[in-house]
């Protein structure tokens, strides 16, 4: 494994040359503010009608139309939803200067050839391993969120150096920047969020809730057991891995974990994980998601609504309403 830290970075490769941050959502806001506070020359590129324009201006940033923002920029980073990057690149391609660096925070658009950049451009990714809010908060506290770096094309000989300078600007180099490839970042990121982080975890919670409620237990008690307490366990895992969790849970909980965990996530779940990974690697998942987007996302909206309408949500809202410290 190759990991870069702040001492490996030469920020003079960017100097005061313009960095265009396209998009001002979760990642865009965090990157733009961190880069500015690190002393870089940042311009945010947003559509005139876009909803996030007012927020970027209120934050004191220079905001231009995407085409104007990328003109003369040394780096243009695409921080819009993955599904709109193709159309956004097409709309600004003629404005991007010779030898600029196209940067991404996730490899989807390049790996699945949604964006096929001009041959003179450097293409790389800096992917923070955390949501935008955390990228900002850690930076303000003097820390950083670890990042991945990958170079897809080095047209100028400076692609890696410029990408690392960018990573330092958002605070990522404080925590370490691990070298990867677009294929590895894209495929592992999709797999993680589908099988474990978002898809796997929420299905596990909902299935546990339904099992208890169907057996006649009170929904409120079920909610505390399978949703609320998850955070306490995840915090221990995050801070100290399996060892720290085992240090803090009871022997009874540990024995139950060791004998029953593999019954729930058994051979069938492992086979399903392999299947999910296969669809990611052979492009099936990407093709379906792109087709869904081009179709106006009706299944996406319907499935999302079904998730939001699940009884665990109503129970959760009621109980969380009594825990006002949760939102602090
Ligand atoms: P987001 O949905 O929070 O932000 C969207 C931004 O793009 C907004 O400013 C919006 O106004 C703008 N936008 C939306 N549609 C647009 C269009 N048609 N044309 C121009 N601008 C448009 O996005 P995000 O979650 O920050 O994701 C940005 C990138 O970062 C993605 O590639 C994503 O995979 C990656 N990423 C996200 C996270 C995360 O935690 N959210 C973590 C790592 C990497
Ligand atoms: Mg789910």
How would you describe what is shown here?
By secondary structure, the protein is α/β, with parallel strands linked by helices. It is built from 17 helices and nine strands. It has a nine-stranded mixed sheet with strand order 1-9-8-7-6-5-2-3-4, with helices on both faces. Helix 4 links the parallel strand 5 and strand 6. Helix 9 packs parallel to helix 10. It is globular, with a radius of gyration of 22 Å. Nicotinamide-adenine-dinucleotide binds next to helix 1 and strand 7.
Mean pLDDT: 96
Our Rg estimate from Cα atoms comes to 22 Å
Figure out the total of helices. 17
Report the count of strand segments: 9
User: Strand order across the biggest sheet?
Assistant: 1-9-8-7-6-5-2-3-4
Report helical residue fraction.
55-70%
Main sheet attributes: strand count, strand direction, barrel closure? 9 strands, mixed
**N-to-C series of helices and strands:** EEHEHEHEHEHEHEHHEHHHHHHHHH
Uncertain parts: none
What structural class is derived from the secondary structure elements?
alpha/beta
Outline type = globular
Query: How far apart lie the N and C ends?
Result: 38 Å
Bound molecule types: nicotinamide-adenine-dinucleotide, magnesium ion
Strand content: 5-15%
Task: Please write out the topology.
Layout: E1 3-4, E2 18-22, H1 26-37, E3 41-45, H2 53-58, E4 62-64, H3 66-70, E5 75-78, H4 85-92, E6 101-104, H5 108-111, E7 122-128, H6 132-140, E8 147-153, H7 159-169, H8 172-175, E9 177-179, H9 182-197, H10 199-214, H11 219-228, H12 230-248, H13 251-264, H14 267-281, H15 284-294, H16 298-308, H17 311-320
Parallel strand pairs: 2-3, 2-5, 3-4, 5-6, 6-7, 8-9
Antiparallel strand pairs: 1-9, 7-8
Helix pairs in contact: 1-6, 9-10, 9-14, 10-11
Bound molecules: nicotinamide-adenine-dinucleotide and magnesium ion.
Magnesium ion binds next to helix 10.
């Amino acid at each position: 494994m190759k990991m870069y830290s702040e001492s490996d970075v030469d920020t003079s490769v960017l100097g005061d040359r313009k960095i265009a941050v396209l998009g001002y959502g979760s990642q865009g806001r965090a990157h733009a503010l961190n880069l500015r506070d690190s002393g870089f020359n940042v311009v945010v590129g947003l559509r005139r009608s876009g909803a996030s324009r007012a927020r970027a201006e209120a934050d004191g940033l220079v905001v231009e139309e995407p085409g104007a923002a990328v003109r003369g920029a040394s780096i243009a980073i695409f921080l819009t939803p993955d599904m709109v990057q193709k159309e956004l690149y097409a709309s600004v391609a003629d404005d991007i200067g010779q030898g600029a660096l196209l940067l991404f925070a996730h490899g989807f658009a390049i790996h699945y050839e949604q964006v096929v950049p001009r041959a003179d451009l450097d293409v790389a990714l800096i992917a923070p391993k955390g949501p935008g809010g955390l990228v900002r908060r850690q930076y303000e506290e003097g820390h950083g969120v670890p990042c991945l770096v990958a170079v897809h094309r080095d047209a100028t000989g400076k692609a890696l150096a410029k990408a690392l300078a960018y990573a330092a600007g958002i605070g990522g180099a404080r925590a370490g920047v691990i070298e990867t490839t677009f294929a590895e970042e894209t495929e592992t990121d999709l797999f993680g969020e589908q099988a474990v982080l978002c898809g796997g975890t929420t299905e596990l919670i909902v299935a546990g809730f339904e099992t208890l409620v169907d057996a006649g237990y009170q929904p409120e008690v079920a909610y505390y057991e399978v949703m609320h307490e998850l955070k306490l366990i995840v915090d221990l895992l995050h801070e100290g891995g399996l060892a720290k969790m085992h240090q803090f849970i009871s022997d009874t909980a540990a024995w139950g974990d060791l004998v029953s965990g593999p019954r729930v996530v058994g051979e069938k779940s492992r086979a399903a994980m392999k299947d999910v990974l296969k669809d990611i690697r052979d492009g099936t998942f990407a093709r379906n998601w792109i087709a869904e987007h081009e179709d106006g996302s009706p299944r996406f909206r319907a499935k999302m609504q079904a998730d939001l309408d699940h009884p665990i949500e109503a129970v959760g809202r009621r109980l969380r309403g009594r825990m006002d410290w949760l939102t602090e």
